[in-house]
Amino acid sequence: MEFIQAIPHPVLVGAVISLGLVIGSFANVCIHRLPLNESVVFPGSHCPACSSAVRPLDNIPVISYIILAGKCRDCATRISPIYPVIEAVTAALLITGFFRFGLSFDFLVFVVVAPTLVIITAIDIEPQIIPDVITLPGIVLGLAVGTYTIGYANSLLGFFLGGGLFYLLAVLSNGGMGGGDIKYIAAAGALLGWQKVLLVIFIGALLGSIIGLFQIAVQKISRKSLIPFGPFLAMGTLITLFYGNSLIQLYLDYLVG
Ligand SMILES: [Zn+2]
Description:
Elements: H1 10-33, H2 63-67, H3 82-101, H4 105-125, H5 132-149, H6 152-173, H7 179-192, H8 194-218, H9 230-256
Helix pairs in contact: 1-3, 1-4, 3-4, 4-9, 5-6, 5-7, 6-7, 6-8, 7-8, 7-9, 8-9
The structure holds zinc ion.
């Protein structure tokens, strides 16, 4: 499994990391405003405690947080470390994707999908929803890109298989599966096709079970306060984007012999 295709130029690497930090900064805005149905464009960034506008020089991803020692310049209220973490994770994901895909169409798709997965994960942990403003455009994008990369038949099949399975689960589990999860997996299915959407669900369920059992056993928490399914689906999608072909091949080799 050749992960790195070629060693890219350092300037390109720097550019991709910078792009990741900027997109991560925008992801923070989305994470905080989308659940409140607020515009992600207006107004500009401001301190949630004192409402002071954030100065451009205090708005540099990760670096400003370190310079300000995690405090608002105006009122000294602590700024959540979630902000620089989101920025750093987004940049790390993009550079990993760049090493994996190189400058390609796959990387272009990854630049859109990976930060979206970060946003979905953060919002689904708290306040535990996957907003329509992400999943509905996601379905359109999934069908469009899927038609181009894997053909419209496979894209549609993935859409209906993923969405259908989760819809069935929602009915059977009586509310254990949210509408956001259904729309999310339909979008992932449209993007990835029928085989890979099954892989996403398998990896998501596997990770969710492991973490869930760990939470119940070690942290002694009730089933009600478990992490929702979205973050595990996002992780499953990420792993499938990176290793989907190899994992499916492995499965087929093992099954067929
Ligand atoms: Zn403030």
